[in-house]
Fold this protein.
Amino acid sequence: MAYQAIRVEKLTPVIGAEVRGVDLAQPLDERTFKEIHEALTENQVIFFRDQHLTVEQHKAFGRLFGELVVHPAAPAELQAHPEILVIHADETSKHVAGENWHTDVSCDPTPPMGSILYMHELPPVGGDTLFASMYAAYEALSTPMKRLLEGLTARHDGEHVYRGRYGVKDEGKVFPKAEHPVIRTHPVSGRKALYVNYGFTTRIVQLARPESDALLQFLYRHVETPEFQCRFRWQVNSVAFWDNRCVQHHAMWDYYPQRRHGHRVTIKGDTPFYRA
Ligand code: SIN
């Protein structure tokens, strides 16, 4: 697409682009909104530098793309803004959000369409985020493997990820679980994407347990292929907007005991489907 309202500079031929020439704190005109949406569809994850957003402006930008969802397990740290997921690490942290390859909340029957992370504080070095294209992961598979996977569904479970994770009482709490196609068709681009992830996927339903375990291990290693990835080096006031329907990400925790702090909003998605 020829962009007129924004400038789009690709990070790699496969995934990721920096978007320039837009102030996300201002209301966006129709053309700018459409071009940002197109840049996301084309590049799967897009990045903005030097943004100065209040919590309300961050939420307003997210709402242009859909309803915001509240995280099913993390406590709301900003009382008046339950839609804000605080991403924080410091010298007391035992783990950080997203430290393994995952798709956000894929355990939900309608997993998020996208997430928008705005970073306020960063370590002097480190704390990058890696993003991997699940289109590229699908497309690199052999034809017989694609055929096998296209008929399968997998269970995604929040229980082992969220139980006890946030240091709040969660007895009796039921975390989401869902069954999704192993290959999903993106509702906007029509492209096919691999849709299992190390974080949440526990079982391929139609296979015996040892077969499922072996195939999932292979697919998790496949997802990590460097050619499917881009790596984003944050600066204070950077924003990343990724499409959870076709991207996995991994937050590097290589900066302990330094601090890293930001806010994320998460946009409601739809039920994953496979269309040949
Ligand atoms: C996440 O949303 O999974 C965390 C990403 C990050 O901190 O870079």
Q: What stands out?
A: Residues 91 and 232 are 23 Å apart (CA to CA). Residues 87, 97-98, 115, 117, 129, 249, 251, 264 surround succinic acid (CB under 6 Å).
